[in-house]
Design goal:
This protein is about 25% helix and about 20% strand. It contains six helices and ten strands; from the N terminus they run H-E-E-E-E-E-H-E-E-E-H-H-H-H-E-E. The strands form three sheets. A four-stranded antiparallel beta sheet has the order 1-6-7-5. Helix 3 (about 145-155) crosses helix 6 (about 200-230).
DNA sequence: CGCGCTCCCTGGCCGC
DNA sequence: TGCGGCCAGGGAGCGC
């Protein structure tokens, strides 16, 4: 479920709940996630969480004794914080792959049916060079994601603009939903080659991405609170989608029927009339 | 090197 | 009710 706005909201939820907590017990399922942790996760026992940050779609926990824990949710991962009272009666569910219990009796549960995510405990001095982090491009909400820098990245790129913007080396965290929505907002066809965008289109696209991600963080925030606190029921943010999943529905701007195609193996939704 | 395709995995949904 | 096929919000790795 997570794109950047969800991971950002989960991070905020985790900051409220797990910072300064000491881990007293660790459970790992026998199922392998995308890859196994470099350091045995049982080493988390007796460590204390000092901070939680987000890089791209990765959650990065800092722990004492110079450890970092990286969690990625893949396509289907969920993180649920369970308070002490509920932890007492908690029964491990299918696809719970990692649970850590804290000194105060509460716990954190990672559940991932498809297991495209991972959990990696590493020493802090290796964080910047981690294989999943080292090649990442700019954060879309940072100032260095701007028209001038994006123009350089798109120069000479023959691939379509939609696929290009989902490339983490160009900009991180822009997933299939938000690139579809952003291209609609900036009136750019997903079929255009990346290098064909004019300066003004590049500017519109960067602003649309920032705008939509920011709105989603605010809008998704409330549903994400449930997500972190309780059972992860689906939120209401999908109500704001204008093209994603709207194939065969009418475009809100012009009444044209929204088209669905496949690009690079992922579904694309757009309005042929509005997006040129 | 850039780019397109395939795969990792489970579950939900749809049509028969 | 059962089953096969298709689809899913991510990302790496492989050939060409």
């Amino acid at each position: 479920m997570p794109e950047l706005p969800e991971v950002e909201s989960i991070k905020i939820g985790l900051q409220k709940h797990v910072v300064n907590k000491k881990i007293t017990k660790v459970f790992c399922s026998d199922k392998k996630l995308r890859f196994n942790s470099e350091i045995d996760l049982n080493n988390l026992k007796n460590l204390e969480i000092e901070s939680v940050e987000r890089q791209a779609r990765y959650l990065v926990f800092s722990l004492n004794k110079n450890y970092n824990l990286i969690i990625h949710l893949g396509m289907s991962g969920k993180i649920v914080f369970v308070d002490a009272a509920k932890t007492k009666n908690y029964h491990t569910q299918k696809h719970d792959h990692f649970i850590c219990k804290f000194e105060d009796g509460s716990s954190l549960i990672y559940n991932d049916p498809r297991r495209f995510g991972f959990i990696d405990l590493i020493s802090a001095d290796k964080l910047a060079q981690h294989k999943m982090l080292v090649k990442l491009g700019v954060e879309p909400l940072n100032n260095d994601f701007n028209a001038a820098n994006l123009k350089k990245k798109l120069r000479g790129k023959k691939m379509n603009i939609k696929t290009a913007m989902m490339d983490n080396k160009i900009v991180v965290g822009v997933g299939n939903i938000y690139i579809n929505e952003s291209l609609f907002e900036s009136a750019i066809s997903p079929l255009r080659s990346a290098s064909s965008l004019t300066d003004s289109e590049i500017k519109k696209l960067t602003l649309a991405i920032k705008n939509i991600l920011k709105k989603a963080i605010v809008h998704g925030g409330s549903s994400i609170n449930d997500y972190v606190d309780a059972n992860g029921s689906s939120g209401s943010f999908q109500d704001t989608f204008k093209v994603y999943g709207k194939n065969n529905k009418k475009c809100l701007h012009c009444n044209e029927i929204i088209t669905k195609i496949v690009q690079n193996g992922r579904s694309t939704f757009y309005c042929k009339n509005c997006q040129k």
